[in-house]
Amino acid sequence: MGFRGFLEQLRASGELIHISKPVSTEYEMAGIIEALGEKPVFFEKVKESSIPVVAGLVSSRELIARALGIKKEQLLHKLSSAIEHSEPPEIVEKGECQEVVEKKVDLTKLPIMRYTEKDGGKYIASAVAIVRDPEFKARNMCFHRLMLLDKTRFVARIVENRGTDTALKKAGGELDIAICIGNSTAVLLAAATSLPMGVDELGMANALERTQLVKCKTIDLEVPKDCEIVLEGRITKEKAPEGPFLDLTGIVDKVRQQPVIEIKCITHRRNPIYQTILAGRNEHKFLMGMPKEPTIFNEVNKVCECKDVYITPGGCSWLHAVVQIKKRSPDDGKKAIEAAFKGHGSLKHVVIVDEDINIYDPHDVEWAIATRFQADKNAVILPNQPGSSLDPSGDLTEGKKATTCKMGLDATIPLAATGKGFVKEAYKKVDLNKFL
Q: Does residue 398 surpass a pLDDT of 90?
C-alpha cells in the first residue's frame, strides 16, 4: 500500500483530518497533534515551509495493521515471520523519491519542528537513517533524532554500540548516510527492529510489504524508491552538543556531544509530503515497542508455548511487557521470564500470565498478580543487569553501560493445590433485548 496509498485510504474513509489554516512548526503543530490525540492529520499550509505535513499514521495498532493489509490480531505473527524470513529487496533504475534532485542544499526549507520549549533546537524525529556496515557490506536501517544546526548540517543522537555506531567505528569515524522522510509503515517498523549484525532491515520491510529500492545520486547506498524525501550525506568526525530533547519515557533527555552529519544532496518527489511523529507519544511508543514483541515471542517459544506478547504503554512501550503462555510444567513461568529478558535486552519488568488473561487489559493482568502470585515464590529478581539508558532510575554513570535491577513476576496458576480455585467465575450470558 505504501505511504501515499495509506494516506489516500484514510482520506477516502474520512479519517484524515485536514487543517487548512496556516500552522507554525514552532510548538503550534505539535500542540495540535497532541490535542487531536494523534489522530491522522494533514497540515495543508505550513508557515515556515511550502511542504505540507502529515502525522498520526502509526498512532494505533489498528492503523499499523491496516497499513499492512492485515487485522491487528495478526500483527505479532506477521512481524515475527518477517524477522525470521526476510526477503532481499529489488533494486530498480528509477524511484519517485528522485523526481527532483537538489544539489544546492537548504535544510531550513523543510518543515522541521520545534516540539517543546525545552528542545535544544528544531528536530526531525521521524526520519529513517540508512548506512552500510563496512565489514558485512549489509545495509543497516534505524532511527536517529536529528537536531538542525544550519542549512547543511544536523547533529544526530547515535546510540553507542548499536548498528550505526558500530559501522561508524569500523569506518574510522566517517560514514555515508541516507536519511529518508515519509516512509511506508513497513519501512518504519523494520527500521525500529534490531536484527542480528549483518542482516538487512530493508529485507524485513520487503517481507512485510513489497519494498523496492533505488540507488542514491551521490553516495553508495540504496533507499526505498517511493519515500517522500531523501537527504544524502556523511557522518563526520566533528562533534556538537545534541539536546535536550524529549525521549520515549516522556522525560527530557540530557545534552551530549554527538556526531555532525553534513548533507550534500536532497532528492524528493514532486510535491513531497513531510511525515512527523511526536516524541514520547503514541507513534514513538508503537514504533519502538511493537518490534520487540516478536523478538520476545520467538525467545519464549524456545522454552515453552508462547501465545501472545504485549509491550505495555504504561511501561513507556519499552521497559514493561506482559507475556501469555500455555503452562504445561511448574517451571514454565520462570523459563518464560528468562527468555523474555533475552528477547528484549532493555526490558526491566515482565509479567507472565495464563491463556485466560487478557494481556491488553491492565485490570485483568493486575487481577492475575493479585490472585496467582506470591512474591517469595514467584518473583525473579536480577540485580545489576544491563539496562536501558531511557530508564532514569537506573545507574546512568557517564561512560558506562546503563545498569538496572530487573524483575519477573510469574502470575500463572500454581500447579500445587492451595484450597482455593484460580479461575474467575462467569455469570450466565443473557440477551438484554428480551428484557429492555
A: no
Is residue 219 within 8 A of residue 259, CB to CB? The reply is: no
Residue 390, domain CATH:
3.40.1670.10
What does the alpha-carbon distance between residue 371 and residue 2 come to, in Å, rounded to a whole number? 46
**Is residue 419 in some structural domain?**
no
Cα 103 to Cα 120: distance, rounded to the nearest angstrom: 28
pTM of the complete model beyond 0.70: yes
**Region at 27 (left for phi over 0; alpha for psi -120 to 50; beta for the rest):** left
On whether the CB atoms of residues 179 and 233 are closer than 8 A, the answer is yes
Clarify whether residues 281 and 327 are in a common domain: no
Amino acid, res. 168: L
C-alpha cell at 333: 513461568
**Do 210 and 130 share a structural domain?**
yes
Calculate mean pLDDT across residues 52-64.
95
Tally of structural domains, the chain: 2
From the CB of residue 24, how many other CB atoms can be counted at a distance below 10 Å?
16
Q: How many CB atoms lie within 10 A of CB 50?
A: 11
- pLDDT tens for 311-370 read 998 999 999 999 999 999 999 999 999 999 999 999 999 999 999 999 999 999 999 999
Given 247, 253, 308, 410, the catalytic residue: 247
d(CA 407, CA 360): 20
CATH of residue 272? 2.30.110.10
Domain that holds residue 255: 2-286
24/67 same-domain check: yes
* Distance, CA of 422 to CA of 412 (rounded, Å): 9
Alpha carbons 122 and 120: distance in angstroms, whole number: 7
Q: Catalytic residue at 176? A: no
Q: Is the pLDDT of residue 183 over 80?
A: yes
pLDDT band, residue 389 (cuts 50/70/90): confident
Q: Is the peptide bond before 244 cis (omega within 30 degrees of 0)?
A: yes
Give the percent of the chain with pLDDT over 70: 100
The grid coordinates listed for 137 are 557490506
